[in-house]
Amino acid sequence: MRLLPGSSEIAARPDSGAAIHGEPARIAGEENRAALFLVVFMRLLAGLWVIQGLSQWSAILLPPEPLFDNLSALRGGAVIFFATVNLVAAVGLWLATPWGGVIWFLGAIAQILAALALPGFFSMLWIGADIVLIVIYFGLMRRAGHAGMASFRARPDQIESFDR
């Protein structure tokens, strides 16, 4: 619910929980453009993470030989962890929710750590891609945040005194 500007009436508008609000049809100004870039990036990233999660599930469900008989407990746990986390992160990223970005970030950091702890589990090329994607994500978040903060700067004639 929001207070309508210039009145004491409250507009009944349900909060979707999305991190980025706005409709692509009404994109205008730097704030909405930065938010649009962020949402597009999050959705592209979600598609990539769905593919990655499904490839982990295919390793679990369709192995050429019994998977968990030949893997250490640590590697087997990593396969199950990434199969679950990647798909959950993909859903959150697609919906542009705050928890989606957090789950994705934690999963990407876990991939980097797994590549260092379990040689051959992830390629170093994929780890480099993770680092680049993290930098791009935080850059877009910063840009969208700065553009959003510009809209909250009030002019002196808009500020009401609360010392009545």
Rounded to an integer in angstroms, the radius of gyration calculated over CA atoms is 21 Å
Termini, distance in Å? 25 Å
Provide the β-strand percentage band. under 5%
Largest pleated sheet = 2 strands, antiparallel
Identify low-pLDDT runs. 23-28
Query: H/E series, N to C?
Result: EEHHHHH
Shape: elongated
Mean pLDDT: 80
> How many strands?
2
Estimate the helix proportion, in percent.
55-70%
- Domain count, please report it: 1
DSSP helical segment count: 5
Class per helix and strand makeup: mainly alpha
Please provide a written account of the structure:
By secondary structure, this protein is mostly helical. The protein has one domain. Helices cover 65% and strands 2% of the residues. It has helices at residues 29-61, 67-70, 73-94, 98-117, 124-150, and strands spanning 2-3, 10-11. A two-stranded antiparallel ribbon has the order 1-2. β1 (2-3) and β2 form a beta hairpin. α4 runs antiparallel to α5 (124-150). The longest helix has 33 residues, at 29-61. It is elongated, with a radius of gyration of 21 Å.
Short description:
The protein is mainly alpha-helical and 164 residues long. The chain has helices spanning 29-61, 67-70, 73-94, 98-117, 124-150; strands at residues 2-3, 10-11. The protein has one domain.
Task: List the main descriptive attributes of the protein structure presented here.
single chain; 164 residues; mainly alpha; two-stranded antiparallel sheet; 5 helices; elongated
